[in-house]
Fold Type 1 glutamine amidotransferase domain-containing protein.
Amino acid sequence: MATNRILIIVTNVGEYEKNGFRTGLWLGELTHFWDVAEKAGFELDIASPTGDYVPIDPESLLPGVIVMGQASRYYKDRAFMNRLRGTLKVSEVDVNRYDAIYLTGGHGTCFDFPASRDLADLIARFYESGKIVSAVCHGPAGLLNVTLSDGRSLIAGKNLTGYSWTEEVLAMRAGVIPFVLENELKKRGAHFTKAKLPMFKYVVEDGRLITGQNPTSAGAVAEAVVRQLRGGQQL
């Protein structure tokens, strides 16, 4: 039975382990998705691995970045930003309350998403319940260790995308990330593809698994999720 609700997962990690660089949620990857899904009539909840405060990647707040996709409007909305002061804990989520799950990005996800057994189990329950699993940018890091009840990796043999190695180099994060997401997805048997040019919008749908490559893809991921939940109807 449809619930008309979508669960959004965000990171709790605010800095890189190797140095003092700050990171966290890439705000636009939350707000671009939120904007599309809310306008389509869906209710949204936000959860995180620990259920604690959600840091914002400072680079996602730069003037040339935050104005894109109305992220600035959400940042100025105190009620909306208060949602990030305390989020649901993934271990306490009831899968039956939602139609889909969406994993936002930001480099912080590279640290806590793969390490959270509770998150991996939650994603598996979503998928095996016939619900949509979606992610954008570094959000697919949360898919790396998801194992289904038959012992198979969720992403083995699946077509997907995520933040590419080229984009890591251009972002000057190649030396501080804990792993190369593109390589780790491939190691687990995923069929990884990407846009011809870095930072261009790119979305891959493989049944109920929907992934976007980078921050510019978050809105398009939302559109794909909404379209599937509506039975293929165009927005």
In short: The mean pLDDT is 95. The chain has one domain: 5-229. Residues 4 and 42 are 5 Å apart (CA to CA). Strands lie at 5-9, 43-48, 88-89, 100-103, 132-136, 159-160, 191-192, 203-206, 209-212.
